[in-house]
Amino acid sequence: AVDANPIIEYIATEGIRKLVGAMPELEGPNSRAARDDALQGAWFCGVSLGSCAMALHHKLAHVLGGSFNLPHAESHTALLPFSIAYNEPALNGQLDTARHALRTDNLAQAIFDLAKTLGAPTSLAEVGMPADGIDAATEIAISQPYSNPRPLSREGIRALLDDAYHGRRPS
Questions:
Q1: Cβ pair 84, 150 in contact under 8 A
Q2: Which of 33, 111, 121, 152 could bridge across to 126 with cysteines, CB 3.0–4.6 Å?
Q3: How far is Cα 126 from Cα 1, in angstroms, rounded to an integer?
Q4: Distance from first CA to last CA of the chain, Å, rounded?
Q5: Is the pTM of this model over 0.85?
Q6: Which of 125, 126, 95, 94 is nearest to 111 (CA)?
Q7: Count of domains in the chain?
Q8: In this predicted model, what pLDDT tens digit does every residue of 22-61 receive, in sequence order?
Q9: Where are the beta strands (DSSP E) in the chain?
C-alpha cells in the first residue's frame, strides 16, 4: 500500500504467518491451537487492511460486486492470484514476506494452488460472473482511478479479468 508503514507491515506479516501455519490443521477434530492461530491471523490481517489504502485487487472486487452482484469474499479469493501477478513487477520485493510464509518463489501461483486445495473458487465464472461482463468490468475499473503500485492499463486489466474469469493458473 502507498501508505504502509513498518508496524502495519509487521502486523500483516504475522497475520499471514499465523494463517498459513494454521491451515493444514484446521480440518482436524483437535485443532483448537490451529483455530486460535487462524483467528488471530485473520484479525491481524483485518487490522492491516483497515489501516492502509487498498489497491487493484480490492477495487476489482467492489466493481464486480456492484456491477454483477457477485459475493465479495469469493470475488476476492478468485481475483487475488491474478492481481498479485499483475502488480508484482512494480512491487520491488514487497511480497517477499508473503512468498517466504508460503515457501514459494511464485506467490500468485502458490495462492491459486492454495485456493484450489482448500476448495475455494479459483475463477470468476465459479462465483457467477457472466462471460460478457469482462469488457464492462474493465471499463468501470479503468474509468475510476485507484491507488495501485502498477499503472492501470485497459489491456492489462482486461487480460487479468479474462484469466481470472477462466481460472487460468497464473504464470
A1: no
A2: 121
A3: 28
A4: 23
A5: yes
A6: 95
A7: 2
A8: 988 887 778 899 999 999 999 999 998 888 878 898 899 9
A9: none
Domain span at 11: 1-52
Query: 15 and 25 share a domain?
Result: yes
Using 50, 70 and 90 to split pLDDT, how confident is the model at 20? confident
Q: Which of 57, 59, 66 is nearest to 129 (CA)?
A: 66
**Exposure b/e, 128-146, CB count within 10 A at least 16 = b:** ebeeebbeebbebbeeeeb
- Report how far residue 109's alpha carbon sits from residue 169's, in angstroms, rounded to the nearest whole number: 6
Question: Which alpha helices (DSSP H) does 69-153 contain, by range?
Answer: 72-87, 96-101, 107-118, 134-143
How far lies 70's CA from each of 11, 48, 65, 74, 140, in Å?
Answer: 29, 24, 4, 8, 15
Asked if 38 and 97 sit in the same domain, the reply is no
One-letter amino acid for residue 162 of the chain: D
Lookup: cell for 72: 465479495
The reported pLDDT for the residue numbered 169 is: 98
Give the CATH number of the domain where residue 145 resides: 1.20.1090.10
Closest CA to 64 of 152, 155, 157: 157
pLDDT tens-place string over residues 70-81: 999 999 999 999
